[in-house]
Design the sequence.
């Protein structure tokens, strides 16, 4: 069974602080996605990384795919209250299937 | 952008009854749709992969006779929870993969099922 472990599980920080969320697995994935989910809604795709070592930036969010394509990180600079939510990584397994990570619940305090 | 509509958003049903959840891709064709289940404050668990015109592929531990999936067209997949029990109460989410272009994935807004 492929598992994607995310750390930390919970994170509460002050507005303006920086943070990093990690997504780790013993399995190799052909691609990895990051999502943010608000309560009672479906996840919204933030980014897809495909190449080992790839780094993508989305405004204050920086995503990195590990060289071996087994892990990934999400770094948020100067967090805002609007960043609050559940962050999920998802690794592509098989032809089209994505397996989701355990999730990181982020709360940014004003 | 691609939109996936999921209905109903909330449903309450009595134990022993069946509930159908619909997942529609509104502006694109989806050859593959995925059904997930999410418990409170937990991640998404993949239940099954649904391909248009063929039988769904269920993940290990998911009862295919309890969670009936039908993907009759390129824009519609349904999940029927049969003989529902309180332990089936959960948040169910579908995702659709675009048949054309980059084959991106779009999620529905989810269905909160409560079995009383």
Sequence:
């Amino acid at each position: 069974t492929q598992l994607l472990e995310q750390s930390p599980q919970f994170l509460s920080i002050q507005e303006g602080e920086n943070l990093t969320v990690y997504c780790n697995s013993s399995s190799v994935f052909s691609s990895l996605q990051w999502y943010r989910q608000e309560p009672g809604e479906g996840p919204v795709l933030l980014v897809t990384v495909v190449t080992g070592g790839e780094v993508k930036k989305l405004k204050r969010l920086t995503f990195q795919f590990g060289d071996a394509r087994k892990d990934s990180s999400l770094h948020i600079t100067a967090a805002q209250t609007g960043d609050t939510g559940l962050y999920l990584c998802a690794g592509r397994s098989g032809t089209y299937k994505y397996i989701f990570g355990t999730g990181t619940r982020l709360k940014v305090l004003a | 952008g691609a939109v996936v509509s999921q209905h109903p958003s909330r449903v309450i049903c009595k134990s022993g009854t069946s509930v159908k959840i619909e997942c529609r891709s509104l502006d694109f064709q989806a050859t593959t749709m995925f059904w997930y289940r999410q418990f409170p404050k937990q991640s998404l668990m993949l239940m099954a992969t649904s391909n248009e015109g063929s039988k769904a592929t269920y993940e290990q531990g998911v009862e295919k006779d309890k969670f009936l999936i039908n993907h009759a067209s390129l824009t519609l997949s349904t999940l029927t929870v049969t003989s529902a029990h309180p332990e089936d109460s959960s948040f169910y989410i579908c995702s659709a993969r675009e048949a054309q272009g980059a084959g991106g994935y779009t999620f529905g807004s989810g269905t909160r099922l409560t079995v009383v």
